[in-house]
């Protein structure tokens, strides 16, 4: 099936061709497990200490923390990698990334400013499912499995809400003082967008080189199968954390 905006995508017959992805899946699964939750939507211990020891407005440090979060947040990067996988025109990339940024920024700011709580394991499990969704979308699975194609832009916006809320739940646990909170959050969000531009630029350069290779059409199927497996691993990791928390 060919989408005029997104290039060639596999049809639903991909289900019978996933076996070759086994090796790459195992590698990515290992990387995901070893990475743990220290980076994905999390805040490192050194950052946590900084936030709690420096109340008041800290614009530059918060911009740095936001950029660091995006560049090192592999769940963000996996989702964005899936989003732009079959986007070839810059205006389409810009449209999807802007929708993600709107969703991410809205819940990040609103979640912390209005002190809206949610279990971080549940939110991060949904974020893992966002990666699964995007891989399935790239594989052209939904018309086969559901009988219809979900609105792709709406899905990116909605999952952007969850990605932003995921970080908001973590920040709420760290911020001990609301002095200068709004300015710090805006600074953090500016840093997130700056980090997103940096990360996407690198991904796009690598994607462009990859697309020019003769193996892209074949490896695209495997890459999205691996992406789907990584999303399931992230989701399973968070579900296990949720039940561990409940039984502790």
From TrEMBL:
Keywords: Membrane, Transmembrane, Transmembrane helix. The chain crosses the membrane at residues 71-88, 93-116, 122-142, 154-171, 191-209, 221-243. It comes from the Bacteria. InterPro entries: Put_HupE_UreJ (IPR032809). It holds the Pfam family HupE_UreJ_2. This is HupE / UreJ protein. It comes from Novosphingobium resinovorum.
């Amino acid at each position: 099936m060919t989408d005029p905006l997104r290039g060639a995508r596999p049809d639903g017959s991909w289900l019978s061709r996933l076996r070759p992805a086994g090796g790459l899946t195992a590698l990515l699964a290992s990387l995901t497990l070893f990475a743990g939750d220290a980076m994905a939507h999390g805040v490192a211990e050194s950052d946590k200490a900084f936030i709690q020891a420096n109340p008041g407005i800290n614009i530059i440090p918060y911009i740095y923390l936001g950029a660091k979060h995006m560049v090192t947040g592999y769940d963000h990067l996996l989702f964005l990698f899936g989003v732009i996988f079959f986007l070839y025109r810059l205006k389409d990339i810009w449209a999807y990334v802007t929708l993600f940024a709107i969703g991410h920024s809205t819940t990040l700011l609103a979640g912390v400013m209005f002190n809206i709580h949610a279990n971080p394991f549940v939110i991060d499990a949904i974020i893992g499912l966002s990666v699964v969704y995007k891989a399935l979308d790239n594989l052209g699975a939904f018309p086969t499995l559901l009988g219809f194609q979900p609105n792709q832009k709406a899905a990116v916006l909605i999952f952007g809400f969850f990605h932003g809320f995921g970080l908001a739940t973590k920040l709420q646990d760290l911020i001990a003082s609301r002095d200068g909170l709004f300015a710090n959050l805006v600074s953090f969000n500016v840093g997130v967008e700056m980090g997103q531009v940096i990360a996407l630029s690198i991904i796009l350069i690598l994607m462009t080189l990859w697309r020019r290779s003769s193996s892209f059409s074949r490896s695209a199927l495997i890459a999205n199968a691996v992406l789907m497996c990584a999303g399931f691993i992230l989701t399973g990791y968070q579900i296990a954390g949720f039940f561990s928390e409940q039984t502790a």
